[in-house]
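JOB MANIFEST
job_type = single_chain_structure
chain_count = 1
residues = 180
[input]
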Amino acid sequence: MQSHQLKRIHPNMPRMTVARGGRRGKTAGRGGKGQSARAGNKRRPEWRDIIKRLPKLRGRGKNINMPINLKPATVNIFSLQKSFLVNDNVSPAILVQKGLVTTRSGRVPDIKILGDGEIDKALNVSGCQVSAGARKKLEKAGGTVTAIPVMEIIRKSDPNNQKSIKLVSPKKTVEKSKTK
């Protein structure tokens, strides 16, 4: 056998000339007219349409300038029983130091002490909101409670298109208003 007699096992496939007659004529497998028939067809991805349909988060809530964390951090009585000695002072800064509460955005949060658990140590609580059950248990154990008043936040809308926020404490009422 000589070199000019060698034949390839798989011969070269001829280049397919699309839409020039032959195997794929006229539309060349691209279907009818329209965007999908054009060269450089780039359709928008489905997930982008989903994103564009979502409502925009302009502001927070109903565009009322309210603090982000309305709820105070909570600490239970049983945590105080474990972490403090007799006649210790309990304040928000001390609770953060002991690791019972974490800071929020670098600030010590408002703290509320709840009455879950039992306590037999006299503790001096100050600067924290205290639930009624927790107050009874702390005072029964011989401790003192100088708590800040619990403020309820009431949202209401005024008839003349003003949104106002009322902070209600047991003793006095403070009103802040914000116009649109």
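[summary]
Residues 132-140 form the longest helix (9 residues).
The mean pLDDT is 78.
exit_status = 0
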